[in-house]
């Protein structure tokens, strides 16, 4: 399957051209252990993929416009505020559960039901 192999001055294999199956690959750069380093692909229209750095003024660093940062910032803070509201709503609704108060405890500490608060032996008589 290996048709042609190129070597540098030290005898290291640099690139190899493959058979019919690999015609969609432009070339393969291999290491000294004959492992592929770089595989550059060709698209179906036989044009190499190229990035237009001049038009987009790309320098290889991800950059965003002010509109992009504005959108990202507002979306991030919206998620924080949304989950914050959910968190605090749950804290309010389940305050007694988080404090460890038993739901059946309110029958024992009903206001005015006992002469001594929480003592079931001192239940008041109805008037």
SSE diagram, text form:
Layout: E1 4-7, E2 13-17, E3 25-30, E4 36-41, H1 53-56, H2 66-93, H3 95-99
Antiparallel strand pairs: 1-2, 2-3, 3-4
Descriptive report:
Helix content is 29%, strand content 17%. The chain is α+β, with helices and mostly antiparallel strands and 127 residues long. Among the domains are: 4-43, no CATH class; 66-100. A four-stranded antiparallel β-sheet has the order 1-2-3-4, with no helix packed on it. The protein starts with a strand and ends in a 28-residue tail after the last helix.
What characteristics describe this protein?
127 residues; four-stranded antiparallel sheet; 3 helices; alpha+beta; 17% strand
For the sheet with most strands, the description reads: 4 strands, antiparallel
Note the gap between the termini: 105 Å
Instruction: Please list the strands of the largest sheet in the order they lie side by side.
Output: 1-2-3-4
Query: How much strand content do the residues show?
Result: 15-25%
Provide the residue-averaged pLDDT. Answer: 71
Q: Give the low-confidence spans.
A: none
* Helix and strand run: EEEEHHH
User: Number of helix segments?
Assistant: 3
General shape: elongated
**Total beta-strand segments:** 4
Helix content: 25-40%
Report the C-alpha radius of gyration, rounded: 37 Å
InterPro entries: PS_antenna-like (IPR000932), PSI_PsaA/B_sf (IPR036408)
Protein name: Photosystem II CP47 chlorophyll apoprotein
Pfam families: PSII
Keywords: Membrane, Transmembrane, Transmembrane helix
């Amino acid at each position: 399957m290996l048709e042609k192999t190129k070597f540098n001055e030290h005898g290291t294999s640099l690139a190899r051209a493959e058979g019919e199956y690999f015609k969609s690959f432009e070339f393969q750069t291999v290491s000294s252990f004959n492992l592929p380093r770089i595989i550059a692909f060709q698209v179906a229209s036989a044009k190499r993929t190229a990035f237009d750095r001049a038009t987009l003024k790309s320098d290889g660093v991800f950059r965003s416009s002010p509109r992009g940062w504005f959108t990202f910032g507002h979306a991030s803070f919206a998620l924080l505020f949304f989950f914050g509201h959910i968190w605090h709503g749950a804290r309010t609704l389940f305050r007694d559960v988080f404090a460890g108060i038993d739901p059946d405890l309110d029958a024992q500490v009903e206001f005015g039901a006992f002469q001594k608060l929480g003592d079931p032996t001192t239940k008041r008589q109805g008037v």
